[in-house]
Amino acid sequence: MKNKICVITGASNGIGKEIARQLATKGARIAMVCRNEQRGQIAKKEIEEISGSNKIDLFLADLSSLIQIRQLTENLGKAYGHIDVLINNAGNFFLKKQYNEAGIEMTYAVNFLAPFYLTNLLLVKLMNADQGRIIIVSSRNQSIGKIDLGNYDFRNRIYNGLQAYSNSKLMTVIFTKELEKRLRGTNVTINAAHPGDVVTNIGMNDNNGLFKILWSIKCLFNIPVEQGAETPVYLATAPELTKISGGYFVRKKKARYNPIADLPGIGKELWDFSEDIIKQNNLSINQ
Length: 287
Ligand SMILES: NC(=O)c1ccc[n+]([C@@H]2O[C@H](COP(=O)([O-])OP(=O)(O)OC[C@H]3O[C@@H](n4cnc5c(N)ncnc54)[C@H](OP(=O)(O)O)[C@@H]3O)[C@@H](O)[C@H]2O)c1
What we know:
The protein is an alpha/beta fold. It contains 9 helices and 8 strands. The chain has an 8-stranded mixed sheet with strand order 3-2-1-4-5-6-7-8, sandwiched between helices. Helix 3 packs parallel to helix 4, helix 4 (106-127) runs parallel beside helix 5 (161-183) and helix 5 (161-183) crosses helix 9 (266-280).
């Protein structure tokens, strides 16, 4: 991985920070994407100290904002001629229904639309690499996800945070399958991963006290971040995976996923739907 350029979203905390540390230790140049400058700087310093690397760059973007994603890709584009690895790791769990400034429901915005948009905008840079790899940190919750695009944002029904989260993670698997088809014949692969149930702060963000207590109890049984980062790092680095694409991996092995992801036309439907939302915001998935 020496000098390979790896872009990692959500690198200020949890699994993303650990992925960044492991890849930095392997000699990669790391582009940490963080939404908060202070948290980003603290994480960057920590990774530099532990890994001994001086090849860590910090980029700022709130990935719930399409405008900030576009600005981020412009900044990445100025910094690098190519990108070897893009790890879409940033994600969140919203117990209460929330919308971003463009009126897009936040679970969908952060967990699906952001990796969809960011990946599309960075495709040219990934194609400039010898072998570009896209990794999406999904979740085993994809298995209970449902797709109802007419009601994707729970505007006209009671919001259920767990269902919204699971739906968004199913979308990442559908996107992985669809983009794999569109990338055939190129040097770029895409795979999704469930990191395992990991001790992180994901259950502590924006949630109520009882939920935080339940998450803390669950974390007693969860695996540490070092283990949670293993499958995404494997997908980013393993030489035997240069031509493996469109997979959903758990513990470094291909695993079964929600059969909804294989329904005929579902990938195109989700793609067109999400592209339309981006167009409605006067933006384009093409560079
Ligand atoms: N933990 C688990 O058991 C588990 C299981 C399955 C899948 N996952 C997935 O693993 C990924 C990482 O989660 P984690 O458990 O490591 O959680 P975490 O510790 O809360 O880390 C999430 C990271 O994403 C960033 N992030 C959240 N919202 C963002 C936004 N709007 N813009 C930019 N960055 C944002 C956070 O930044 P801040 O530091 O600013 O908050 C943080 O760096 C997520 O996709 C999650 O769904 C986790």
